[in-house]
Amino acid sequence: MWPLIKLLPITTNFRFVAFSKIAGALSLIAVIGSILLAALPFEPPCGGLNCGIDFKGGTVLEFSTAPKPVDLGLVRETLANKGLGDVQVQEFGSPTSAVVRFENPEGKTPDETLAAVRADLTTALGEVTFQRGDSIGAKVSGELFRAGLMALGLAIVLMLIYIWFRFELQFGLGAVVALFHDVILTFGLIALFDLEFSLTSIAAILTIIGYSMNDTVVVFDRMRENLRKYKRMPLGDLIDLSINETLSRTVITGSTGILALLGLAVFGGPTLFAFSIIMIFGIVIGTYSSIYVAAPVILLWGVKRGEEAEPVRPAGARP
Amino acid sequence: MMALSRWKVIAVLAATIFSILFTLPNVLPAQTRAVLPGFLQKTVNLGLDLQGGVYLLLEVDTAALRNERVINTVEDVRTTLRNERILFTDLGQVQGVVTVRITDPGEVERAAKALRQTVAVPSPATGQPAITVSAQPDQRLRLTFSEQAMEAEARDAVSQSIEIIRRRIDELGTREPSITRQGANRIVIQAPGESDPQRLRDVIGRTAKLSFHMVDVTADPAAAVSGRVPPGSQVLLDDNGQPIVVRRRALVSGEMLTDAYPTFDEFGRPAVGFRFDSQGARRFGDATRQNVGKPFAIVLDDKVVSAPVIQTPILTGSGQITGSFSQQEVNDLVLLLDAGALPAPLKVEAQQTVGAELGADAVEAGKISTAIGFVAILIFMVLAYGLLFGGISVIALLINGLLIIAAMSAIGATLTLPGIAGLILTLAVAVDANVLIYERMRDEMRSGRSVLAAMDAGFARAMTTILDANITTLLAALIMFALGSGAVKGFAVTLSIGVVTSVFTAVYVTQVLLALWFRSARPKSLPIVQEP
Fold first, then answer.
1. Which residues contact A138 (CB under 8 A, 6 or more apart)?
2. Using one digit for the tens of pLDDT, what is the confidence trace for B429-447?
3. Which end of chain A has the lower number of beta carbons within 10 A, N or C?
4. Which residues from B are below 8 Å from A64, CB to CB?
5. What fold is seen in the domain A11-43+140-301?
């Protein structure tokens, strides 16, 4: 049998807490930056986010003129001045394929819009194969947008309730701060790289919320256990110890997640690309926040020690 | 724990057999599958994004339905009062309320009574009268519609629309379309394998409301276009865009048709033949007898198809619609008339079309990504925990993957592209439970426990954390399922199933396998713990 690879020494002794001030400052800057990126320019409903058609309405049409390349200029010309708003024309995957995005003209239903544009393109380009055509009316997109935000809000509220039941006040506060940190930073990433903000992105963010909570729970559980075990250890050292003890699990789980998602990002096609990137970022940021956001908040806030540190509910108690 | 309880072994075995049995149909060719018993024939449904097809979100225009109801009531009031020979003025409707002024104050009571008998009849939807007739000062009668009855009628209209759409699509021969209601007045149609949304739209979108009206020969069409329409008449356009003034009241309507069929007219041009039911035949017979020599209009979806002059009374209850139809138009019209008219117009709110080729590409991409994800996890776990422990967690993972597919097949869940992402993610995070358990064992060995005690403690102590971790994910998935739509729902389904199965496999399957190893090998140390 070969020796097991060691990503980390069996026992690590990193001084995480020592850097928590710098990390805290960085996180704060990143959070403020993310809010600004996502909110500006301040135009409802999407602000600085690149909303997909499921959130702002409109049409996406993917087509190919194989074997000859798509004449993007001709496509632009064909679709100009048809009341389609800001028409975006892009090559898609290969030179023989293209994708166009535009707003639905006033007073036309999605099916009429699609049929008209398909007819126009066929007339202008000759042989055209339409691979995908999605069109969503303003009414439905408004509802989807509200449902998406509601899902996000509901997820956060449920997590808060869960944290309330699961942890004492100090830990709960740390977990809540970490949760908001992760969600806000993810919005920042979506805005910064102009990834499409759609229902799929909301699904990715909800999954990140689940993962980030999971990660925080693992670290906190160990912290509570150590609080009972080492009653005299300074809080900073105790936090370092707990993070170090759970570090190899954190790294291994994070790595398997990222590895699998990388495969998805590279081979999963354009639909899943943004999704995978958001998830990978979420795993990284969720791991970081457990160490540098959740734990330092506890350090800042302080924990009752000694006999009183015993949790009231034995939910997480260990023998 | 290493003293293995019998039920745990049975549970693991049963789950393994179930997972293999129900996953199998997905990889068998269709002919082999057909000979299996029914419960084993189920496979995972592929979402439209994976097999291509058309998705339509339609809204039943209940406002139009209501509007039509009001306009019909105005005509009913006119007819009733005329039949009763009561003089009236100012008949009309304002914002859904019909009012009429009775000329003779002594007749108001009689008029109200007559209207209650003819117009304010119980609504078929609620059994209660939908219209209330009330007397106002100044000899006016006011007819108001009950909100409750209107809503019930709208609900009925949506159900009826679904039924009619189903009949129409079945006629088209589309493969396994799914037609479902969404919310109060929406209908979702998913037609897998259909690549041309236009054909589907042509058939679904037309109201196909057929009626026969007398042409108002007293009115001047040109004057009517500029707004001077005689009361009780309306201006419609014919095929050539020429205006024709017709009576609002229909002689006979399309509901009285029993049969429509393609045929040819005397010049050999395609035409639609039809037959009325007995009531329709009688009414059509009466009307044609009284109006010989006058033109009548055949109106389809507010357009005059033709306006022939009645030559002789038509008493047989059957006839022919001729116009400038192509054979395809005749066939479509027959299909639509046979399936029945939609009670209200439908409006498309969202449409998605995915080409079959694109769907196949997506399936391919999903397969490759899943395989890569799985291999990456396999290599990583074996490198991190060795062939034995790493291998055991990979076996658990494999059973987990099979269980997810088996469960999805058994409940007929739909796999979408984001669902595949959910599957990969579940596999990646499922090993977390194994990692937690193994890391605990390492800790316990380091603090000097025996192999057996360390293994027991590893499982026992990691359990709380594992449950916690998975509850958070499950909460997130349930929210997605409740509020998401389409593809996102698919993701939520895969994720939820995956969370449940992964806790089972990572804990029980691993435990049983490790216990078997422990019994046979009686190890003095754990291979995951290396002496420094």
1. A57, A104
2. 788 888 888 888 888 888 8
3. C
4. none
5. Multidrug efflux transporter AcrB transmembrane fold (1.20.1640)
